[in-house]
């Protein structure tokens, strides 16, 4: 278990990066607390896996340093760093039995056989693979194989950190919940530092204390699920977290009013904006109320998704989404009001502080 | 759903069947025909039964040649398979080195057998050959024309030079099909270089190794052209393999009956040994 510091990490896969766009990882400077459970969330190709592989030592970063508990490990091998990592697709040793597969990481480290047996039995029970222990791993289904991969990651008790690279992609939905809660339980029990890469926001929000959102090779926001929801630092976080994502509307800012098309919206703070910046107003569908008063909208579509309805509408000639209660009615001449507390203003995609 | 049988398909394969009949079945039947009869020319044949087979099986000449064949194949397999694996493991996985290595590896395979034989025949000569002269000038008494051991060494080195590439290429094909994630996982699991080989690379190469093993066994057991060109079966009979013995019997002495019987025995031995190897290797595969 360890505190992990990433100091100005940059990484390019090509030999001589010329421009900023050659970097898969543009600049990451961040501390992962000892015993924290982090989710690394972002779209495919944003650099999540690269960052994970840099932490585990499978990739050496082009620039920057990595510290475990204050010691520089940038040039240490994966083995020396003592990291466990679970990959997206199952990796099993198919000539070995399920038991031997799970024992492999321990035996390689010369753990006494009685301890190996105890740990392996524990993992077999956790993953429900007990009855398969003596069989070769070859004949298993994809999700059983992935459970073995996961088990090999969890079997060591002395690791600095456990990294998960979208480990549940190939597992069926029901089992996903079970395994995720077991990982969470292990985290509580042993206090491993865990980093969990995913592109599934539900998975990220349920797993982690802190969610790290990555976009285009950099970390755009680190926060609790509530912070990400209420105060997205970047319009990408707004889009990506929440379903449907945040409405982002181009807006002219003058003092403490924002103008979206012909509509003027009063703000409860005065954003400080550099001249020439592209300004936008962000509001989540949950904080727009639909009624007979306020600004006019044209409803285009209503999607009933169970507990609430998603209303797709056009506001000042821009598409917006509004969340309405299941039994909420949609008036004939619909109008909307925005909750002033929930309005965020963005300049060049980054949030501009006011009161927050 | 009921399967539709379309007998017209047989017409499609008919040309191939006819070709195979002419190229394989008919010659084979001719050999069978010769092996059970005696002839003095003039197209007169006399029934000989199993006499020729017994003759062959009772002759020292046959057993000596068979022993030479078995030893030769054993040495070839013992060298080429491990060497091929080692080279394949050390070949580059990406970059400009890959095509260069592949072309270099494929070169010996493209050279016709008799040319390979000629190359080595000249290469090893003590009077004009580069290898022979060099060894002689180093004070090593090497002469494949007079010394049976030197003849064997020459043939083995030649075969290793000619055919190890095949094993390398097959193994390499097996190795490049292993996803990077396996190597990464092995690093995470703290696996040693040997464990990576034993538990990741070897299992993935198993199928191609089986093919390589069978091909190299059959080819080395049937070797003819190269020793014929290099040593002509000598010195003495020291490099007279079954194939060379067969040709000597059939064409040199014109003993068609014994030669035909020997051909069939030879064919059955290869078939039997290949079947045994295949069965043993695939059974161990199934048990994991």
UniProtKB/TrEMBL annotation, chain B:
Q: How does it sit in the membrane?
A: Multi-pass membrane protein
In terms of CDD domains, this protein maps to: TM_PBP2 (cd06261)
**Gene Ontology terms: biological process:** transmembrane transport
Q: Which InterPro entries match?
A: MetI-like (IPR000515), MetI-like_sf (IPR035906), Sugar_ABC_transporter (IPR052730)
Q: Does the keyword Membrane apply?
A: yes
Record field: transmembrane: 12-36, 70-89, 101-123, 160-183, 208-225, 256-278
The record's section on Pfam families has: BPD_transp_1 (PF00528)
Cellular component GO terms held in the UniProt record? plasma membrane
Sequence similarity: Belongs to the binding-protein-dependent transport system permease family.
Name-wise, this protein is: ABC transporter permease subunit
Its ancestry begins with: Bacteria, Pseudomonadati, Pseudomonadota, Alphaproteobacteria, Hyphomicrobiales
